[in-house]
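Colleagues,

Please find the record for the two-part complex below.
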Amino acid sequence: MSSRWTHALAVSGMVLLTGPPVHVDAQGSARQVGAGVPRMPDGHPDLQGTYDLNTLTPVVRPAGMPAVLTPEAAARLEAAVTESLSESEQALDANRSAPPAGGDGSPGAAGNVGGYNTFWLDPARTYMMVNGEIRTSLIVDPPAGRVPPMTAEGAARFAAQRNAASPDQPPVDDPGLGDPDSYNDPEQRPLGERCILGFGSTSGPPALPNYFYNNLHQIVQTPGHILILSEMVHDVRIVRMKAEHLPAHMKFWMGDSVGHWEGDTLVVDTTNFNDKTRFRGSGEGLHVVERFTRVDANNLLYQFTVEDPATWVSSWSGEYVWPRTDDPIYEYACHENNYALEGVLRGARFRESEDAKQ
Amino acid sequence: MKQLCKSLALLIATGAVATPAVAHHSFGGEFDANRPVLLRGKVTRVQWVNPHVWIHIAVTKDDGTTEEWMVEGGSPNTLTRLGLTAESVKVGTELVVDGYQARDPTLLRANGRNITYPDGRQLMLGSSKTNQER
């Protein structure tokens, strides 16, 4: 039985992203934005609003997929997703028994224990359309739609961060557990599990969909600062306009962001990351450039370039559209009721005490 | 169709759970796949909180004693946007939960793999305000 999650992590309203096409030139700056885009008193486009970043399109292109889907192929996939989600919401057997001992085979975050019902999720409805193309990845460079290979240094650091099992370690007969040594210290746990930053680089930079829920972001704009609030974990990035980066010895979880306008595009440059951010294995040398262009009243084109020469052999870039939403962002207070982290660590300590008895 | 579904699952799986560094916490670290449970009980308390909603149920065992279990759900924000609240799960409501117990078995906690009413309808979908806006 495959996981309800792999079926139904996304739902489709069976319509492709409609609205005016988003035009982008080769350098990534948008053409002059249309008449529907309001302007601030200083003349710059008003980027303000709440946006829902979720999409069916993943960050990385799955193997075997073309870069662009035909409308017919996209419609078929979206319909299949809708069907999967409907199946996952059907009533269950009133006389069902406990799930199978040894796990139900659910992969990834569902941890072989089946996670939770799909009604908790806020799945996306459509694939991402940019420049009239229905994309199968947010990454556009490298053209294969994948993150470039890591450098040797980056790969070694990434393995150490993940406490990857050494070759002589006996295999773990518990697929949901992963590496049993990654529970010795709360600081080994992912930042989302610790309620420090939202999972999936939701705050960024770069800001990415997390494909689950709470993908809402709000932009507030003043002449001197632009603020980006991410619902998880109530993070606010503050972009200082026309400013210099802080000294290199100052390092931050979300880096230090400075911005300027290039025509109607906001360009945000972020450096000064600490060694704990670890965006897909990055180090302190992470450098992210983001470009925000409000292409019409309801859509913001978000483009990003990521580089860290100590981690990846080349830079990589992606783009997707942030549609405006009327939904409110709610507080995501996280730490005080984080029973999950407690449960994870207590489980590890219990395992240790059981092992010690043997 | 089967091929499409495989591609689709792959598409979604790749997007959602790319690497451990970006993954949501693994339920597999919190709950024990070797301790499946089937719980029937009445709601005593709902913690409508992030990062996870916890629904407390009183489970009456065969010997007549009662155990208080905590059942872990997802984030409440999506459901709040649909008009649901902690009061949508009324105290006293009977629920059936299948899932797995915490890896520390001194904790009477389980993941809400499936939370339903006794007739099998899923919890939030079966309430009066359903996800009709999807």
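Chain A touches chain B through 102 residues (CB under 8 Å).

Comments are welcome before we finalize the supplementary table.
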